[in-house]
Specification:
- The structure is a single chain.
- By secondary structure, this protein is mainly β.
- It contains no helices and 19 strands.
- The protein has a 4-stranded antiparallel β-sheet, with no helix packed on it. Strands 10-11-12-13 form a 4-stranded antiparallel β-sheet, with no helix packed on it.
Amino acid sequence: KRETFKGGFEKELFVSGYNQNYGVFRLKSNDFSLVNSTLVAAPSVFAIFPLVVDKTHIYGGDQYNNRLVKIAKSSITAISAVYGSLGTGSTNFSIPYQLCLDDQNLYVSDFGNHRIKVHRKSDLAFVSAYGTYGLQTNATSFHSPSGLAVDEKYLYAANDGNYRITKLSKSTFGFVASVDLNLNTIGDTTLHVDEK
């Protein structure tokens, strides 16, 4: 259901890398003034990119440490959960590149491991993975997946290195369809599903 409000109202923006600093920054949408941040001195401690936000938490891919981070919006400096490390197993990442979420899960394009992963929003625990490294060989072949989008039934993944968009079922995490694209870059594709 879409509602329209007359007049402006203040929203919050969450920004990674604001003012060339590491951390997550909360800004007012009307004047971009800084409300608070997770800013720390050393980027090895907190280098969050990408970001997605729901009503209560900020979810980030810590590309420096190859892990997921969950931060409470109520106290932006409080880390609720951390999950993962560098590697190829179910508990590992190799550059968590893009994120999207629904009511229950966080979806991650694991760029260097050439797969899409699903994690529970509640505790970031691993749920499932889809894809293996491959150059356009079959439906499960991924090469440097980047952009992700999700709706009620499907997950859409930009399979950049194979120049295609792949559509997966959320309920089974199985292949549904794909379409080839004429792309000339890797890592720059972003996806978004309209609310309609």
